[in-house]
Amino acid sequence: MSRRKLVVSLVVVAMVVCLFSTVGMSAKQKVTLWSYAANNIEEWNAREADVEKKFNIDLVIELIPQNAFVQTLQAAMMDGTGYPDIIEWMIEQNKILDADPRRSLVIPLDKYVAKSAAFKKVPEGRVAWTNYGGHVYGLPHDVHPVTLVYNDTLWKEVGVDVAKIETWDEFFEAAKKLTAKKKADGSPMHYALPYDPGGLGATMWMIWNQSGAQVLDKDGKPTFTSPEFTQFVKWWVDKINTGMMCTWDWGNFGALLADGTLAAFATPDWWIAQVDAAAAEGKYQFRVRDLPVYKKGGPRTASWGGTFMAITKLAKNQDKLYEIIEYLQYDEESLTQRYTAAQMVPPFESVWDDDVFKQPDPRFGGQKLGVLQTELAKEIPAMTTGDIFWDAVFTDFNGEFTAIVAGNKTVEQGLKAAQARAMRRVK
Questions:
Q1: What is the pLDDT of residues 336-366, one digit of tens each?
Q2: In contact, 266 and 147? CB cutoff 8 Å
Q3: What spatial distance separates the first Cα and last Cα of the chain, rounded to whole Å?
Q4: Helix (H), strand (E) at residue 246
Q5: Reported confidence tier of residue 280, pLDDT bands at 50, 70, 90
Q6: Which fold has domain 147-302+388-423?
Q7: Which CATH superfamily includes the segment(s) 28-144+305-377?
Q8: Contact at 8 Å (CB) between 75 and 109?
Q9: Neighbours of 161 (CB within 10 A)
């Protein structure tokens, strides 16, 4: 080969190598996000193009059925193929997180959140739900502050101004006037609150948040027999036995508000719309306020439900993935839309002063619901969670609670049994 041909050949090879290198450098990384929450996926789909452009990625968003999410994720991780890079999952589940990072399906975010300016704006009470064993595993999507919605018409007809009530004890004392009016069968014409007879859920869950009576200690061990939790359960059982509360009826909730059967309910932001139809009818005037406190000086709110984003253990380029999930969760320009579109308060203090939260709400006679919600969001109680938390609550405690309410066990007997069952879960 002549010297000239050799030079030309080398130039061509160099150009080809350069071309393929450029293509490789500009190729988009595929990032797969799994979520079970259809309403949240609407937000991610609306922002997909923006996120892809900002991070030079191909964002693949997949809806995974809630009842198959954990099993599908575990199978994909074990197989090592088809797994997502990012997941969005509910806080009411401990099959994904673990206090020991080696057993968790997602990575601790400690090194990222420690230096993140954005993360410092997320209320500590909200972060607590994804903090296992001192490790932060997820970025919360929402804060879900709880308020009290009440039928002002019905309460004032019996001489009660709910806005002036300070404590839950005062609330239940005043409710005697509300529930005094009976039907032919002797049941109240109006009920003060709804509750879940199955145990620590719904109204009981929200007031428990306010009580400060933890289910686990800082080491992840159950505390069902502590004086604080025992006192709370006794107090709640006493309130059930007054007959002033009706069963929390998910499918018929709005109708119970509309016909006056239900005169008040504690509610996170995602359930507050149940009052819409009743308020629109105009028969009753509804109002909203902070929760009465469990004890004077205690928190005026609680939190219930919610989701978080996390990075799976097998995902590549985890540093970049953290930047992506932080942008998805806390891009300030997008957060007000989260409230207007889904009525969910974002867990990000720097946007709470936006005008979108200051609009009068016609459902509540022009009260500024968003102002109240964002004010209460700063006071969300921090509850201690951990590996056994959800099984201890849903199985160990709730299983004994039904026996307590039925009178088959004393509170002390039921809590002792729940404690023993939960202790067997401790690693």
A1: 989 998 889 999 999 999 999 999 999 999 9
A2: yes
A3: 73
A4: strand 245-247
A5: very high
A6: D-Maltodextrin-Binding Protein; domain 2 (3.40.190)
A7: Periplasmic binding protein-like II (3.40.190.10)
A8: no
A9: 11
